[in-house]
Amino acid sequence: MQHRRPTQRGIRSLGTVLLAVLLLAPPSARAKELNPVNDVLAARLAEKRVCIAVAVDVGERLLERATKTEAGLTFGSGSKVYDGDAGVALLFAGLYRATKDARWLTATKATLAQAVAALPKDPGFYTGRAGVGEACVEAFWATGDRSFLTKAHACTAANAKHTGTDIIVGAAGVGIFLLNLHRATGKREYLRQARDAGDYLVDAAVRKGGTAHWTMSPGKAGRVYLGFSHGAAGIGYFLLHLGTRTKHAPYLRLAEEAARFVLAHEDHEGEERAHWWRTVPKSSDYRRIQWCHGAPGIGLFFHDLHHKLKKAPYTEAFERCLTTTRTRGRNARAGGSQCHGVAGNAELFLEAYRSGGEAAWLREARASGSALLVADGEALRVKAGYGRATYDASYMLGLAGIGHFFLRLADPARTPLPMMVQRDTKPRR
Question: Which helix (H) or strand (E) holds 233?
């Protein structure tokens, strides 16, 4: 089947068509949804102040349960971004950017002070010190306070040996942190360290027939993942940005080889053509549609390939990821988390809106946001139990990540997606 020639107009038209499908869906179909849309609440999310109020409510709920330490504040699960203090700090920094309320700056400082004081040995991005450093860099972007850059530097590990490849725990994630620290400071040492991460991934790549893939631990037998969290899409994303920053063609070539590997293993069964199993060969579980594994996360890679390289296969793949996330992603799994829930999937809609300006994708994101909320009188609150348990403070699995999604919904143009390569050269005010 031949794909049509991709254009920006095509992406905008796709958004309009999908919105019409949503509006025409019968109520009986919506009643079966795991995370049902509430049209009344979605309409209210068109107001910036309503979205910010949802995020503020989440922040206040988290502060009520914070534990004071000698260093600052902790939320009980260690320092890391994935499910620890650094991830909660991402929300607090975003709240300060949105409201300029000094209590959120105080909370950001206290939470990151604790995270740096208890800095893990794990070098990882979502699981260790690189992620704590990234939270400090993003706090600098949000507040303009340069003391956060000092903390970020404390999280670097010059000449550290990489032992893994992926974004969650390996070289690709560490490299993203170093690219952002280089952008924030202008210090070439951080770019050199990012290139070290890139060179490690070049050496670790398994290249065949114009494609490239990785195991999580080079030199050891293991699964070959496809998605953004552990696989070729996330590694390719870092290499794309490293190649763009350094203008070093081998990184860009390898990023495209990773993209071709992902495309070669797209599941073409049925009409929707943006499904992937977690691993190659196919794992025994179902085809996932979430940030960590599947179209929503892989779509972030193709989004940036589309905008940076302007090549038809990447544009078409991005369109397919949007289609699948729109039609299947909201109800692929019950829950609202960033890693494998409604909020993380809807971030792809916000990225499409930020880059293309098509309002249909912003409306899709609002519809997803409505599925996370319950009305409490005039106020809107994130539903209890979204996360692993009744209460989960974390960024990737719980309230902090959901709260930050509503900050993005309030002001997509000025509120970037955390833990990604950032384009800013000045702190946001």
Answer: helix 232-246
Strands 373-376 and 67-68: unpaired
The pTM is what?
0.90
Strand (E) or helix (H) holding 53: helix 48-64
CA 361 from centroid of its chain's CA atoms: 17
Q: How far apart are CA 387 and CA 394, in angstroms?
A: 8
- 426: buried, middle or exposed (CB in 10 Å: 19+, 13-18, 0-12)? exposed
Q: How far apart are CA 246 and CA 377, in angstroms?
A: 53
- DSSP bridge pairs for 244: none
Digits of tens for pLDDT over the chain (429 positions)? 333 444 444 544 544 444 444 433 443 344 467 889 999 999 999 999 999 999 999 999 999 999 999 999 999 889 999 999 999 999 999 999 999 999 999 999 999 999 999 999 999 999 999 999 999 999 999 999 999 999 999 999 866 789 899 999 999 999 999 999 999 999 999 999 999 999 999 999 999 999 999 999 887 778 899 999 999 999 999 999 999 999 999 999 999 999 999 999 998 766 567 889 999 987 766 678 999 999 999 999 999 999 999 999 999 999 999 999 999 888 878 889 999 999 999 999 999 999 999 999 999 999 999 999 999 888 999 986 554 456 799 999 999 999 999 999 999 999 999 999 997 545 554
Q: From CA 171, how far away is CA 167, in angstroms rounded?
A: 7
Q: Where are the alpha helices (DSSP H) in 100-231?
A: 102-117, 129-143, 147-154, 171-185, 188-204
8 A C-beta contact, residue 141 and residue 428: yes
- The length of the chain in residues reads 429
Q: Which two tokens stand for residue 217?
A: 């631990």
Please tell me the distance from the alpha carbon of residue 248 to that of residue 357, in angstroms, as a whole number.
Answer: 31
Q: Which residues pair with 279 in a beta bridge?
A: 225
DSSP sequence for 267-310: B--SS---BB-SEESPPSSPPB-SSSSSHHHHHHHHHHHHHHH-
